Amino acid sequence: EKRLISLCVGCGNQIHDQYILRVSPDLEWHAACLKCAECNQYLDETCTCFVRDGKTYCKRDYIRLYGIKCAKCSIGFSKNDFVMRARSKVYHIECFRCVACSRQLIPGDEFALREDGLFCRADHDVVERASLGAGDPLSPLHPARPLQMAAEPISARQPALRPHVHKQPEKTTRVRTVLNEKQLHTLRTCYAANPRPDALMKEQLVEMTGLSPRVIRVWFQNKRCKDKKRSIMMKQLQQQQPNDKT
Predict the structure, then answer these.
(1) What stretch or stretches form a coiled coil here (predicted)?
(2) Disulfide: which of 49, 85, 113, 140 matches 43 by Cβ 3.0-4.6 Å?
(3) Who contacts 131 (Cβ-Cβ below 8 Å, separation ≥6)?
(4) pLDDT recorded at residue 34
(5) 232: domain CATH number?
(6) 8-state DSSP, 159
(7) Residue 85 Rama label (left phi>0; alpha psi -120 to 50; beta)
(8) Does 41 map to a domain?
(9) Are residues 2 and 63 both part of a single domain?
C-alpha cells in the first residue's frame, strides 16, 4: 500500500522523520516544529498541547491567555482556588466585595451585580433611591435590578465554570505519538512473553524503541484492556453456541 504523504503544519514541508507528532486527527508536525506560539517550548508526548485559532500553546501560556480570570483583579485562578460566582462572572473569594463600601460578601449575603460592579444590599438600595431622586422612575423599561444571594464558594476546577467564561472553538487534545512497524513489533514481542513487564524491562524498551516511558506504559495498559475484552467476548460466544444447538 502506498503511504500517504504527511505535511508539517508548522513549516509546510513533507515529514520524513521516524516520528510524527499528531495534534487532533488531521494536524501533523515535525518534532522540531511543534512549539508553543508564546514561549517556544517544544511540545511532545510528555506534555499537554492546546490548539486555538491554528496556533499551539503549552498549558501554562494557554491558561494565561485564555483561561478563567477574576472579574475584579483580572488574575487567573490556580487549581486549588475556591471562587465566588455572580451570573457569568467569577471572582476570587477576597475580590468578592462591594465596590462602594469594600465589605467582603460572604455566603448568604444579598448583593446586586450592576454595570459598575458588585453592590451589597445596603449600597444597592442607596443607588436605587438616588436614581429615583434623579427622575429615573422605576418602570417596566427601567426595573429595579434584582438582588442575588451569595452562594457557597466552589472549586475553580469545576467544569461548570467553563461555559460561562470561555468557549474553546477547537477541541484540545494531547499530542499523540505515531508508532512505526519496528516499534510495534518490539512491543508486541515483549507483550507475548510478558504482558506485565517490570521496571527493568520497561527501561530496556525505552532504549530499544526510543519511546518515552509514558508511551510504553499506556501502550501495555491499552493492549491488556483490549485482550481482556476480546477474551470476554470469546467466552460469551462459546457459551451461546451450545444454547444455539439445543
Answers:
(1) none
(2) 49
(3) none
(4) 82
(5) 1.10.10.60
(6) G
(7) beta
(8) yes
(9) yes
